[in-house]
Amino acid sequence: MATRTRIVSTGMYVPSRVVTNRDLEELMDTSDEWIQQRSGIKERRWVSPGETTRGMAASASRQALERGKLKADDIDMIIFGALITDYIFPGTGVLLQRELGFSKPVPALDIRNQCSGFVYALSVADAWIRSGQYKRILIVGSEIHSTSLDLTTRGRDVSVLFGDGAGAMIVEACDEKTPHILDSCLHSEGKFADALTVIKPSANDFPRLSENTKFDTSIYPHMEGKLVFKNAVTRMCEVMTELLDRNHLRASDLNFVVAHQANMRINQMVLGELGIPFEKTHHTLDRYGNTTMATIPITFDEAVQLGKIKRGDLVAFVAFGAGFTWGANLLRY
Ligand code: ACO
Questions:
Q1: What is the per-residue pLDDT for 306?
Q2: What pLDDT is stored for residue 212 in this prediction?
Q3: What is the rounded CA–CA span in Å between residue 112 and residue 114?
Q4: Do 168 and 58 touch, CB atoms closer than 8 A?
Q5: Smaller CB count within 10 Å for the chain: N or C?
């Protein structure tokens, strides 16, 4: 019988510090009304001094391990993703491995796919497990945005959207009869790479940094908001249709959709276009903002804990982000 991949358990972590839209009004020329109306975000979490990407990743991972009744050494591969990492190198995957206290030298892979990182990572994990190379994989997205945002009026179009947090998922080998991951569709379009970026510090600067290096605003995220918005709606609809068509399914066959949480208006348009009722989804955007690669596992975890997603449900994950990169997974939970 062919090997397939099942979801064992999930975990999440968000910092305890709540930053409301009103708090942002103190820092920049913005308003609670603008932020809620344009994005659907009411508040987000920001780290406090001492919290790290790897620390948040470890907290989310420990919760997933506990819920799966597993120990770190039961994992034989780590896939980690973050947009801005603890170190330039090495990747945070090995820092997480150290943090979790593995006794074996299990491999750790870092991926850089921003908001669609989790759908990419799940597809990679599924392929590895189906090939027989690994049996149980820990996938983690952990993001600290708050320390790298331009918190002045100059950066308000981006800064109000992002929050900090981590989400973890453990997947393992199973047989075909067990509910499992069915398919993944992944895409990218590098011609839009500059539409959503943090450019500095860059390897192309010579020297990269020196005593004379002037402060440069390209250390902050830059986003062409309307272009990203338009492409997010188009591509998320397209990739969902591709995924459903090639599995001979209709949108109405899905029990639940976990969509990336960048903007409530994007998700309303995508779900509306696909004809998926709002009861078949869950949102964390209002409370956590956009946590990039952590968003899908956080949102899935909450939906499972709330009993909105049940074992046996047919579920799709869909995400779009910087690159542009986008993709979707189809699974029987
Ligand atoms: N507060 C108040 N006013 C603001 C703010 C703010 N925080 N930000 C921008 N404005 C102003 C603008 O300056 C502009 O003013 P002007 O008309 O005087 O020039 C006005 O509000 C309207 O700005 P728009 O850009 O037209 O606003 P829009 O309705 O497009 O919404 C937003 C902006 C929310 C950023 C939207 O474009 C968006 O959500 N884009 C997509 C985000 C996304 O999907 N990101 C993808 C994933 S991220 C990743 O992968 C890392």
A1: 98
A2: 84
A3: 6
A4: no
A5: N
CB under 6 Å to ligand 1: residues?
Answer: 30, 34-35, 38-39, 83, 114-115, 156-157, 160, 196, 225-226, 228-229, 232, 262-263, 266, 290, 292, 321-322
- Nearest residue to 325 (alpha-carbon basis) of 119, 162, 116, 124: 116
Cβ–Cβ < 8 Å for 327, 184: yes
pLDDT score for 143: 97
> What are the distances in angstroms from CA 274 to CA 181, 259, 269, 277, 314?
21, 12, 9, 9, 16
Residue found by looking up tokens 């976990």 in the block: 258
| Span from the CA of 70 to the centroid of ligand 1 (angstroms) | 43
Closest to 3 measured CA to CA, from 125, 140, 185: 125
- Per residue in 142-178, pLDDT tens? 999 999 999 999 999 999 999 999 999 999 999 999 9
Q: Whose CA is nearest to atom 8 of ligand 1?
A: 157
Which residue segments constitute the domains of the chain, with CATH numbers given?
3-175 (3.40.47.10), 181-332 (3.40.47.10)
> Is the C-alpha dihedral spanning 143, 144, 145, 148 positive or negative?
negative
Contact 60, 167 (CB under 8 A): yes
Q: How far, in Å, is the centroid of ligand 1 from the Cα of 46? A: 20
Query: How many CB atoms lie under 10 A from the CB of residue 314?
Result: 17
DSSP state of 215: P
129: tokens are: 């497990």
**Count of CB atoms within 10 A of residue 201's CB?**
14
pTM of the model: 0.96
Going by pLDDT thresholds of 50, 70 and 90, the confidence category of residue 206 is confident
- At 39-49, the pLDDT tens digits run 999 999 999 99
Nearest 5°: the CA angle 94, 85, 163 is 125
What mean pLDDT is predicted for residues 121-146? 98
